[in-house]
Design goal:
- The protein is of the alpha+beta class.
- The chain has three domains: 157 residues, Alpha-Beta Plaits, CATH 3.30.70; 150 residues, Alpha-Beta Plaits; 112 residues, Immunoglobulin-like (Sandwich), CATH 2.60.40.
- Helix content is 23%, strand content 24%.
- It contains twelve helices and 19 strands.
- Strands 7-1-6-3-8-10-9 form a seven-stranded antiparallel beta sheet. A five-stranded antiparallel beta sheet has the order 12-13-11-15-14.
- The chain is elongated and about 105 Å long.
- The two termini are 50 Å apart.
């Protein structure tokens, strides 16, 4: 049973579904069975130098594959688009039409698997492998592809996309164009030709004028392969609403294959995963071709506020202390800092936030998880739209086990060590009263914040002198004037503990939104 592997080296997939305009922003995912069969035929003509007609062995291969509907294993994707102004020339004048190029982004190393539940003989298998080796793109020409015929059968499970089945929990259904069998098409063609002739005869019997008769002559291809070879422009000209020889098939698409949900990292298993996970990882992806337009790291505070306000708006009047930070009965602020922290991560080291780790020691209840999972997008300064994808849920141990930066190391804010230093500015949360200046000194406020979080006190706290521009670029106060700190002066500290401490450590004003974040400076040996 043949299984085909497709990889997209450019990390992009472009394909407009039949019946959709390019500006509708629709992308055919997974690629329809009809598209795959046309792809094989087109490759034979362009790369294998077939003559004007399809060879008999290729026709036999296509008709054999058309007898079944394939199933798919879909890699995780996220949506994006670019905008172009295409010139339209009419004589000496020229206008520009705005075109939306919508596509899906995916990991260049991820595989789209297509499995045909049918047995092929050696000759057909060899021809199919040869055609796949010569593929250059799938969909539009921008969708560069590398394809190969796998040597072993794929083991299908519930994470595959199957035809004519109800969608699994969290999944959905998508309508794709598939082909009829060669025999079914000949029966349909015979009936359609007879109906067409009867309609024309009825028009003649009614003595309709030439202008009143049907002026579009549909040409019925002689067989299934001829249908697949017919140019799309010809079909539109003849008025076909759907290609002859094709039919609609509903495919069940699992949650892992839905767009803008990227379970790239499966965090945690067992009872904690099902009950109240303490961590949820969100991935941010810019809405441009490369997906690189993300918020700058020094804007971690306002970006976290935007995500927080979006989550609070999705609670639908439910009481959710882990998100709101307030007691569900009294409405008063919670103590102990057990509710959600929005920890910014820059795993690729480009100075932009690519992930947010939502950490709450009290755990995320069902209402909180539903709010987070429903978040699809946010925005940032000078960025109209940022795609937000949930990568997984779990515990801090799960996060440390699976998340790595570009140096294949655990992010410093989640590490374990004896010496820590500021990664984002520490902002003193209390006024420095004149009569008690020593009591409210920044170093003592650091100790006070550690006590509030029930963390061990360091043996030494050292203030690190800041360069002129260091930490001053950070946004250091919240948008609401009533939530501004006593002073926006940034501090950087070095904490030295007597024994290794495990992160994250966030202290001071705005510590739930990315400020006062510490990173390990000396990792533990154990």
């Amino acid at each position: 049973m043949p299984t085909i592997s497709f990889r997209f080296p450019a990390g992009r997939y472009h394909a407009t579904p039949w019946g959709s305009h390019v500006n509708e922003g629709a992308v055919e995912w997974p690629p329809s069975p009809w598209r795959l069969l046309r792809l094989l035929i087109a490759t034979g003509f362009t790369k294998l130098q077939w003559p004007e007609s399809v060879p008999a062995d290729a026709q036999a291969l296509v008709e054999t594959l058309a007898t079944v509907q394939p199933c798919y294993r879909l890699p995780a994707v996220s949506g994006g688009h670019s905008r172009h102004y295409m010139p339209i020339r009419k004589g000496k004048s020229e206008t520009k039409a705005k075109i939306f190029d919508t596509f899906y982004r995916l990991d260049p190393n991820a595989e789209l698997l297509v499995h045909y539940p049918i047995t092929l003989d050696a000759a057909k298998t060899e021809l199919l492998s040869l055609l796949l080796q010569h593929l250059s793109y799938l969909g539009r020409a921008e969708s560069w592809v590398e394809a190969e015929l796998l040597q072993t059968d794929a083991e299908t499970d519930d994470n595959w996309c199957y035809p004519n089945q109800s969608p699994p929990p969290g999944g959905d259904q998508v309508s794709l164009i598939a082909s009829m069998t060669a025999g079914d098409y000949l029966v349909w063609r015979s009936q359609s030709v007879q109906q067409s002739m009867a309609r024309k005869q009825a028009e003649l019997d009614k003595k309709l004028s030439k202008a009143q008769r049907s002026n579009v002559e549909k040409v019925y291809p002689v067989d299934l392969v001829d249908c697949l070879c017919t140019d799309t422009g010809v079909l539109h000209t003849q008025g076909w609403s759907q290609p002859p020889g094709s039919r609609r098939v509903l495919y069940s698409r699992p949650a892992a294959g839905r767009v803008e949900q990227r379970p790239v990292i499966h965090l945690g298993t067992g009872q904690q995963q099902q009950n109240k996970p303490t961590c949820i990882l969100l991935a941010l992806s810019g809405d441009n071709i490369s997906g690189s337009m993300r918020p700058l790291f020094h804007r971690c505070l306002p970006q976290a506020e935007l995500i927080h306000s979006s989550l609070a708006g999705r609670l639908k009047r439910q009481t959710c202390p882990v998100i709101t930070g307030r007691d569900s009965q009294t409405g008063r602020p919670l103590k102990g800092h057990q509710h959600v922290h929005y920890i910014p991560l820059d795993l690729d080291g480009d100075g932009r936030i690519d992930h947010y780790l939502l950490y709450a020691a009290m755990g995320f209840d069902r209402a909180a998880r539903e709010a987070v999972f429903s978040l699809r997008a946010t925005y940032a300064k000078n960025i109209a739209r940022i795609v937000v994808s949930c990568c997984g849920t779990g515990s801090l141990d799960d996060v440390r086990t699976q998340i790595r930066d570009r140096q294949n190391l655990v992010p410093g804010c989640l590490g374990r060590g004896r010496i820590w230093q500021s990664a984002t500015p520490f902002i003193a949360p209390l006024y420095m009263k004149k009569k008690h200046r020593a009591k409210y000194a920044p170093i003592n406020q650091v100790r006070r914040s550690l006590d509030e979080r029930r963390l061990s006190q360091p043996v030494a706290i050292t203030e690190i002198n800041l360069p002129k521009t260091e930490f001053l670029r950070f946004v250091r106060k919240r948008r609401e004037s009533g939530k501004a700190p006593p002073s926006t002066r940034p501090y950087r500290f070095r904490l030295e503990f007597d024994k290794p401490v495990t992160g994250p450590i966030t202290l001071g004003y705005g510590s739930h939104f990315g400020l006062g974040l510490f990173t390990v400076a000396q990792k533990a040996d154990d």
